[in-house]
Specification:
Radius of gyration of chain A: 23 Å
CATH topology of the largest domain in chain B: PmbA/TldD fold
Number of helices of chain B: 10
Number of helices of chain A: 9
Helix content of chain B: 10-25%
CATH superfamily of the largest domain in chain B: PmbA/TldD superfamily
Helix content of chain A: 10-25%
Number of strands of chain A: 22
Shape of chain B: globular
Strand order of the largest sheet of chain A: 11-10-9-14-21-20
Strand content of chain A: 35-45%
Oligomer: heterodimer
CATH architecture of the largest domain in chain B: 2-Layer Sandwich
Largest sheet of chain B: 7 strands, antiparallel
């Protein structure tokens, strides 16, 4: 065992607006004089930067609220038995190592992030929220004849420790070990355009990376792919895509965003047609719509910007076998890795495993490769959606990182695989 | 209370509580940053971060606790928490000791610049505006997608129960822009340009000019057919694709955990003859330079690859003790709230003789990649992703920008397939100094 950590980071930030110009300042000190300095810094930044700003901010009206919210938890991590958690991590580690002779290394991490948030504004809003997130991850590394490969699996939910009853850490370890073991000597998937089934676990990446970002109003304003496309058809009829701030257990769930705006279920695409965008108070004013509760900050060291919460493609009705039916030559892509997207809709993300599909039948597993495409071409090509919906945990980086939920069911489309030569 | 007073106070508290060994790492950082989005100023921030991390050993059990509150009462609580965790923790059979005090080297020149330290929010804003102005001045078709300019001043203190008691300060100025160009409804691919410096030797105008230039040059892209061939990687892309698996593989912790592809390969040839790499923690003006590492151990120069032969791994005190050797001074912490890991200080790739133009002229058929958006698997070295800001090269000349092109291959094989190393070295965000590198046998995948 390498690490057993515990700690507290606390701080305050102040955001001040002077005639439409924002200034921001933060401090890790909770002493009154330091908070006063932060307020002064924020105000003076707002004032001095005003002449240099092309566009000044105005905010959509939001009714001042006094409220508090706490993640629904059954087993409170604050009362957790640390030794039990250590045992859990150790048992998982032993399981992974014991999986086969090929597993040469692994790491098992379990983290509880327990946030106490307080928001107060000069408009009179006073909100406190306690948000508890449990995240676990296992990396398994297999070696055979000089080949090395890794596989990664994780769990994450807004929940107390009861998440471990639903998804045991040992189960996560098993999935990672099995995949690394299986793929260590497997060849790399080939490169080129192929029909594919994207596993439910990675459909959320598509919803988030490829589409969600283009619907963030700051990017829409900047000319993203969805700019000017409200009420236009951008995806296949069967695609409905939602960003939901209230999804129970979602890693991106909160009752209020970091501007004190109540969150909601925001429909981005309904049956292929663009219905709405994700807003902060500032962009909501600019677009003349209501604020959707999407302004989020990573912590007190960042000002809130427009972020997704839990983004997903709604469930369909097919089984994996039915999705594979009629596919002459393609791949069933499993296990997501990091991704990125430009606001033109061009995206990429990594996959861990590519199962060959030939004449509708699933065959051997190859090592996964990075896939790419234009999100909206990919969504237009979606012709069947599965019934195996899941919501997964994710981390998103847009200048600052944040916790998000990404969800969906396995679906069928076409993509470019950046693999080896055919 | 100064940082050093805080860490010394923590040592006394740990001793009183009955720790076998203890270490405190305190940090104070002031970050002034300006974020640009869609060509406009999106945020300006002043962030003051401070905190302490306490590592305690009791009967070979390790505990770590941290706090952002540096009052005496909070430090005492943090020490107490660390000790409680050390007692709860399972003893680590590999544990030997925290590092002992050694004579520290003289501070490398240029790691602290008082002008950078004195930059105000308004000054950083002016730097950002200079960069942004240079974009439009260069070409009306160019725009800024996003960018960030930061001035960082940080102070660190480390104390441990074996007599280490050290403090140092540093400054860093960074800035980047992601630019795009628009022409008749067409949007170019995103171009990335940046600068990193410990001093005011930093040109926002160059960032803007070059970012705009790259974006405009990528307008009107054409597709190519798939082929296996030569790829010119610019410094930033070479760092991503070739150096990130290398940094992973020379990390002694990964070697000891048997997840490094270079385990057991000391003395073996792992790259072409012309490839020489050192880790130099004392590099003058180096972005990763310091007097001592995150455990208070002196920084040093360590040979990694000499004429393509693997010469050494990077250690912190834990990995070094495991092999009964000395730490190479590569303990690294992201922040006071993390335990020391191992990371490169300044990984310096020895430059070659050829200019970028000359390298391009050597390519009969290939591509040049200036931005890579993809995944690199550090254990296996496999990489695949989109070649953004890429152009097609034929008979030694850049022919046209490319669209919808992916590249894939293996970084470890690529190190053996290096054709030429360029001479224009740049610091990258990965603590490395890298010139452009021409490699062969890369899969170039088209739609």
């Amino acid at each position: 065992m390498d690490e057993l950590n515990d700690g507290v980071v606390e701080g305050v930030c102040c955001r001040a607006m002077v005639k439409g110009s924002w200034g921001f300042s933060s401090t890790t000190s909770l002493e009154e004089k330091d908070i006063a300095t932060a307020l002064k810094d924020a105000t003076s930044l707002a004032r001095t930067s005003k002449p240099k700003k092309k566009r000044l901010a105005e905010l959509a009206e939001v009714k001042p609220k006094e409220d508090n919210y706490t993640t629904k938890i059954r087993r409170d991590p604050r009362k957790a038995d640390k030794e039990e958690l250590i045992r859990l991590v150790k048992d998982t580690d032993a399981d992974v190592r014991g999986f086969s002779k090929r597993i040469v290394s692994d790491s098992v991490v379990f983290t509880v992030i327990d946030d106490d948030l307080t928001f107060a504004s000069s408009e009179g809003t006073r909100i406190t929220q306690r948000i508890v997130r449990c995240i676990g991850g296992v990396t398994a590394i297999a070696k055979e004849k000089g080949n090395l490969t890794s596989a990664y699996e994780y769990l994450g939910e807004q929940s107390g420790l009861e998440v471990l009853e639903k998804t045991p850490l040992t189960h996560i370890g098993q999935v990672a070990a099995e995949r690394a073991d299986k793929l260590v000597s497997a060849p790399l998937a080939p490169g080129g355009m192929f029909p594919v089934i994207l596993e439910n676990k990675i459909v959320g990446l598509l919803a988030h990376e490829a589409v969600g970002h283009c619907a963030e109003a700051d990017l829409v304003h900047g000319g993203s792919f969805l700019s000017g496309k409200l009420s236009r058809k951008v995806a296949s009829d069967i695609v409905t895509l939602v960003d939901d701030g209230r999804y129970v257990g979602g890693l991106g769930t909160m009752k209020y965003d970091d501007e004190g705006v109540p969150t909601e279920r925001t429909v981005i695409i309904e049956k292929g047609v663009v219905k709405g965008f994700l807003h902060s108070r500032e962009t909501a004013h600019e677009f003349k719509v209501h604020a959707t509760g999407n302004a989020r900050a990573w912590n007190f060291e960042f000002d809130p910007i427009i972020r997704m919460r839990n983004t997903y493609i709604e469930i369909g009705g097919y089984s994996i076998e039915e999705l594979a039916e009629g596919m002459k030559e393609g791949f069933f892509l499993k296990g997501g890795l990091g991704g990125q997207a430009d606001f033109t809709g061009e995206f990429m993300f990594g996959t861990q495993e590519a199962v060959k599909i030939k004449n509708g039948r699933l065959g051997e597993s190859l090592r996964g490769v990075t896939i790419s495409g234009n999100a909206f071409e990919v969504l237009k090509n979606v012709d069947a959606i599965g019934k195996d919906f899941i919501m997964r945990a994710g981390m998103c980086g847009k200048e600052q990182i944040n916790y998000v939920g990404m969800g969906g069911s396995s679906l069928r489309t076409k993509l470019l695989l950046g693999g080896g030569s055919k | 209370m100064s940082l050093q007073t805080s860490t010394q106070f923590a040592m006394k508290a740990c001793e009183k509580l009955g720790a076998d060994e203890a270490e405190a790492y305190a940090q104070k950082t002031r970050i002034t940053e300006v974020v640009l989005e869609r060509g406009e100023i999106q945020s300006e921030r002043i962030k003051v971060q401070q905190g302490i991390g306490v590592r305690v050993v009791k009967k070979k059990g390790l505990g770590f606790a941290f706090s952002s509150d540096l009052t005496k009462r909070s430090i005492e609580t943090t020490c107490h928490n660390a000790l409680t965790l050390a007692r709860t923790s399972i003893p680590n059979p590999d544990w030997v000791s925290l590092p002992t005090a050694q004579k520290l080297p003289r501070a490398p020149t240029g790691i602290f610049d008082k002008d950078v330290a004195a930059l105000s929010g308004n000054d950083v804003l002016s730097i950002a505006i200079r960069a942004s102005g240079a974009v439009k001045k260069q070409d009306k078709r160019a725009e800024i997608d996003d960018g960030k300019f930061s001035a960082v001043v940080s102070e660190i203190a480390v104390s441990n129960s074996h007599g280490i008691n050290a403090t140092q300060a540093g400054t860093l100025l960074t800035g980047f822009l992601v630019c795009l160009a628009k022409e008749r409804g067409e949007v170019s691919s995103m171009a990335f340009e940046y600068d990193i410096s410990r001093s005011m030797k930093f040109s926002p105008e160059n960032i803007g000019r070059s970012g705009a230039e790259k974006a405009v040059a990528s307008l009107r892209p054409k597709a190519t057919k798939s082929f296996v061939g030569k790829v010119v990687l610019d410094p930033d892309t070479a760092a991503d694709i070739l150096l990130s698996p290398m940094i992973f593989s020379v990390n002694a912790d990964n070697v000891q955990r048997r997840r490094s592809a270079w385990m057991g390969k000391l003395g073996e040839k792992v790259a072409v003859q012309q490839f020489n790499v050192i880790d130099n923690g004392l590099l003058p003006n180096g972005i990763g330079s310091s007097i001592f590492d995150a455990e208070g151990v002196p920084r040093q120069k360590t040979s990694i690859l000499t004429k393509g032969v693997l010469k050494g791994f990077l250690h912190n005190s834990f990995t070094a003790n495991k092999e009964k050797r000395r730490s190479t001074g590569n303990a690294s912490r992201e922040n006071y709230n993390t335990l020391p890991t191992v990371f490169a200080s300044n990984l310096v790739v020895e430059p070659g003789k050829k200019k970028l133009d000359e390298i391009i002229s050597m390519v009969d058929k290939g591509i040049i990649v200036r931005r890579f958006s993809g995944n690199v698997r550090p254990e296996s070295g496999e990489f695949s992703g989109i070649a953004k800001q890429a152009s097609y090269i034929e008979r030694g000349e850049i022919k046209h920008p490319l669209k919808e092109t992916m590249i894939s291959g293996n970084a470890f094989n690529a190190l053996m397939n290096i054709i030429t190393i360029g001479r224009e070295t740049r610091p990258t965000f990965m603590n490395s100094y890298v010139p452009p590198i021409l490699i062969d046998k890369v899969n170039i995948v088209a739609k």
